[in-house]
Automatic annotation (TrEMBL):
Gene name in the database record: LOC106117318
Domain Hikeshi-like N-terminal: 8-132
Gene Ontology CC annotations of this record: cytosol; nucleus
Residues annotated as domain Hikeshi-like C-terminal: 140-200
Pfam families named in the record: Hikeshi-like_C, Hikeshi-like_N
One function term, GO molecular function aspect: Hsp70 protein binding
Family per record: Belongs to the OPI10 family.
Protein name from the UniProt record: Protein OPI10 homolog
GO BP annotation list: protein import into nucleus
Length: 200
């Protein structure tokens, strides 16, 4: 499956030199990652993926003290032959919690001083499982954010007074309660439209 996958990083030439580790796993190194914001991974068209499979795409930051630890980015398939992934928002290796690390996705590897993208050809059912787990996690974030915002609005509203009840206090700033309600409604609307909007 030589040259089946391609990689485009802004300002650089297309790379198709993925190194096969096994019949179903491939990696490519990416030097100088500090300026990378996005990476596009695609099928070159040389050959399709085997029927019923997808290419799960992983990212690994360089770590001079440990072998690669992989983060799942998403997938490509014959039906979805390309994908653009935002790399700049990914957490660096030392910031990852244990549940986000996928240590052995590409077998036992040596320490690498470059970032890497790995592709693992897996059954399409794995993509469906991933999609359902991501949706469940997103719902948890949305619920948490809504409850936190409701708590904030209710807390602040409990201190509300009318303009007649206000006592001038030098050095204290006041915010109209309707401003907080407007902010809350806007935030909740954006959260419903895109639960990850706050990451950008």
């Amino acid at each position: 499956m030589s040259n089946v996958f391609g990689l485009i990083v802004s300002g650089r030439l297309v790379q198709t030199d993925f190194t096969p580790l096994t019949e179903t796993t491939f990696i490519i190194t990416i030097p100088e990652t500090e300026s990378i914001n996005h990476a596009a991974v695609f099928l070159t068209g040389v050959a399709p993926l085997p029927a019923g499979t997808a290419g799960m795409v992983y990212w690994s930051w360089p770590d001079p003290a440990a072998p690669p630890s992989w983060q799942l980015l998403g997938h490509i398939s014959n039906a979805k032959p390309s994908a653009i992934f935002k790399i700049s928002n990914l957490k660096k290796l030392h910031e990852l919690s244990a549940e986000n690390k996928i240590g052995g996705a590409f077998g036992q590897q040596q320490i690498c001083n470059y970032a890497q993208i790995g592709i693992s050809i897996e059954p399409e059912s794995n993509v469906e499982l991933l999609a359902s787990s991501v949706a469940a996690e997103t719902n948890q974030y949305v619920t948490f954010a809504q409850k936190m915002l409701e708590n904030l609005v209710n807390f602040v509203a409990s201190f509300s007074v009318t303009q007649d009840q206000m006592t001038p206090t030098p050095g204290v700033s006041y915010i109209p309660l309707n401003t907080l309600h407007t902010w809350y409604q806007n935030f909740e609307r954006r959260l419903q439209q895109n639960p990850n909007f706050w990451k950008n």
